[in-house]
Hints:
This protein has helices spanning 3-29, 57-66, 109-143; strands at 45-52, 72-80, 86-89, 101-104. The strands form two sheets. Strands 1-2 form a two-stranded antiparallel ribbon. A two-stranded antiparallel sheet has the order 3-4. The longest helix has 35 residues, at 109-143. It is of the alpha+beta class. 50% of the residues lie in helices and 17% in strands. It has one domain. Helix 1 (3-29) runs antiparallel to helix 3.
Amino acid sequence: MSLFSSLSVSASGMAAQRARAELLVENLANADTTRTPEGGPYRRKDVVFAEDPSLGSFSSELNSALGSNASGVTVSETIVDSREPDRRYMPGHPDADKDGYVAFPRINPAEDMVDLMGASRSYEANVAAISAVKDMIQKSLELFR
């Protein structure tokens, strides 16, 4: 694997973790949203990662010729939670049904915070990998002086 394909792999990892973090923050922000434009409470969202072997047409041809199988990561889809919402007895709430129950999103803020910390650390790991590659490229250029 070349140093430049390493940069592409890390950059794709950073983009994927950024997308994951955005959805986790959206989940946390809407943890108590009982009414959405679609109707009903907010539904928790999560991303699914998949391998992204396309690093560009020239580089993919070059990698196949060199025997390198570097691949990045991409967000393949966004999953929306299809479980029934939590029902809480709150008869004075404007969104309460005839029995006094309000439908709330099935979001566990502690779980989403842990997932957000994981996404942040994965992003930082990709930044560290890019920094290491950058340092290797700089040292290589200094050797040619």
